[in-house]
Amino acid sequence: MPRRRKPDSPFKRFNSSPEVIRLVVLMYVRFPLSLRNVEDLLAERGIDVCHETVRFWWNRFGPMFAADIKRQRINRMRGFRHWRWHLDEMFVKINGETHYLWRAVDQEGEVLESYVTKKRDKKAALKFMKKTLKNHGRVETITTDGLPSYKAAMSELGNQGRQEMGRWANNRVENSHLPFRRRERVMQRFRRIKSLQKFASVHANVHNHFNTDRHLTDRQTYKANRSAALAEWQGLMA
Length: 238
Known about the structure:
alpha/beta; 8 helices; 52% helix; 13% strand
């Protein structure tokens, strides 16, 4: 039986090292920096990279890294059944037109799914919820606001008994919008739905990877978790 061929490295035909590429993607996606900010910070470290190269690398490797992070997390959480999900939609302007970024987070504030639509009706809510359930499995309770589209979608899915609503009950997902809003302002908004969908998905997974619950742990535990997250990042797509 012939031996299975090892897939080629995604960094194969690039002159820069994988470590530099990972660093560039990390800086641009994780922190509220512009392309030229990243270029200047790299220059201070002695790394000569053009801002257009930063753009190309995050577009090329960002989705790959995000997919690897998401796959590992789903595998770890596959047997977990006591999830509490929080669903909400945020308004996003694309070329002056209002669109909706649907987001689902769990009880720890980690983003499960991001999905962009032009409307926030039953059809959009149903497609978003089907996608989330398909990727992450069953859930114990789903907390939403009073938008009728959620109730209509859950009735069709047979999950209406798991829906919860209440004042301040959805603060978990409301607070999770803040890191993305900060990043959106630096990027001066988006020009295409495809660009928004890509960046929202990549940003969510990178944010999850480095979400070490700093406010809930002591200094030593936080440092250990941060070092572990950085070490795992350096091993992505190795």
